[in-house]
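ping. complex inputs:
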Amino acid sequence: MRSDMKLDVKDLGSGTKEAKLDGKLDIHGALAIDDAFAELAGASKNILVDLSGVTYLASLGIRTLVQAAKTLSNNGGSIVLFAPQENVEKVLRATGIDTVIPVRHGREEALALLSK
Amino acid sequence: MQALHPHTGGVEKRRFDASWEAMAEAQIWLSDRCAALGLPDGPGNSLQVCFEELATNILRHGNVPGGGTAAHGPLWIEVSIGTDNRQAILTVQDNAAGFDLPHELAHSADRASGSAQVGGLGLTLIRKLADRVEHVQSVTGNCTTLHFEIGT
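pong. complex structure:
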């Protein structure tokens, strides 16, 4: 299945990873990164997710993020999303997911939440 | 931004097999049609999100319980898109088992919010992103029409 979805991971130390997603998290995109993102969640304490390159998000993509949040929470960690584009933020707010997974506009603000 | 397509009221239609691969192709087709119609980003994105939710719902729940087939032969999904009077209109028709969408939408309100539960997210998105929802359920399948205001 073809997808232009990309996932780049940077190690920030102390079990915290920064995941940069780029592309459309549509059916192709969600299926393309689902396994890798689940694996990342299983191997991390916290994940900072850069959504600035995500141009589309719907419930399949949200499912990937929520499953990762559950895995991290079960291991005593957390996930924070930052820099969503307008359309993506609208979907996050419409579903109320932003009340479960924190969403911030700036990276430093998001990182500060993980440090608490 | 591209101007709205001058021939409002025109409808483009295509039928797809009901599979994840075909639905992903349908998404690309729909995205191309939104661009060709010159839909603004906001309603264009909402329309594509709602299509994904309807398609996902049909794929997950469209088959007759206990069987591998739809109500009438192999499951298919027909998608049409057009504009009319400052609205984008998406119609999704299927031959799946009957689905009471208005009832499900009415009961989806508090299912997802604040609970980290994934189930019901799609219905919540349709309820919040579409400006009007029409649904006809019959013995031969379902037909859902969603309206999205384009604005001025």
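The first strand of chain A starts at residue 6 and ends at 13.
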